[in-house]
Automatic annotation (TrEMBL):
<protein>
    <submittedName>
        <fullName>Prophage PSPPH05, DNA-binding protein</fullName>
    </submittedName>
</protein>
<dbReference type="InterPro" id="IPR001387">
    <property type="entry name" value="Cro/C1-type_HTH"/>
</dbReference>
<dbReference type="GO" id="GO:0003677">
    <property type="term" value="F:DNA binding"/>
</dbReference>
<dbReference type="InterPro" id="IPR010982">
    <property type="entry name" value="Lambda_DNA-bd_dom_sf"/>
</dbReference>
<dbReference type="Pfam" id="PF13560">
    <property type="entry name" value="HTH_31"/>
</dbReference>
<feature type="domain" description="HTH cro/C1-type">
    <location>
        <begin position="41"/>
        <end position="95"/>
    </location>
</feature>
<keyword id="KW-0238">DNA-binding</keyword>
Length: 143
């Protein structure tokens, strides 16, 4: 699903289907990234009306680890990010990234909507074909 507000992708399958199209700049220093993750954890936790304890218990994370993540003093491992996203009812991208890092250009929105509307078995084939086409264009651009 594509949300119209700044054309932000919120469906994880769409985000990971288009790694070349995604406009993500993961070059933040780890301290800046930890602060982003902490702020996102707190925002989603409070939006769901959960306590910190409810989140760390449901995600299977220790109290000290979770409180350090939310305070922006640490970055959770990939498996913990997945568990936290599940508990908070959000995507991993929404926990890891700032909203400005998940923007899709206006001209791509109709294409992504059409892709998302495909039946799952065809979507998989289309993703493989799209990756092949993009690879071809990338190779051509390198010449």
């Amino acid at each position: 699903m594509i949300v119209e507000c700044k054309q932000k992708c919120t469906d994880i399958s769409v985000l990971y289907a288009y790694p070349v199209i995604r406009m993500v700049h993961m070059n933040n220093h780890s301290g800046e990234r930890a602060v982003t993750i902490g702020a996102n954890l707190k925002r989603y936790r409070e939006a769901k009306g959960l306590t910190q304890q409810a989140v760390w218990e449901a995600a299977g994370i220790s109290k000290s680890s979770y409180t350090s993540y939310e305070a922006g003093r640490g970055i959770p491992s990939a498996d913990k990010v997945v568990a936290l996203a599940h508990v908070l009812g959000t995507t991993t991208d929404e926990l890891l990234l700032e909203p400005s890092e998940m923007v899709v250009s206006q001209d791509m929105v109709p294409i992504l909507k059409r892709f998302d509307a495909l039946p799952p078995e065809i979507r998989h084939q289309a993703k493989i074909a799209l990756k092949g086409v993009l690879f071809g264009y990338e190779q051509e651009a390198l010449r």
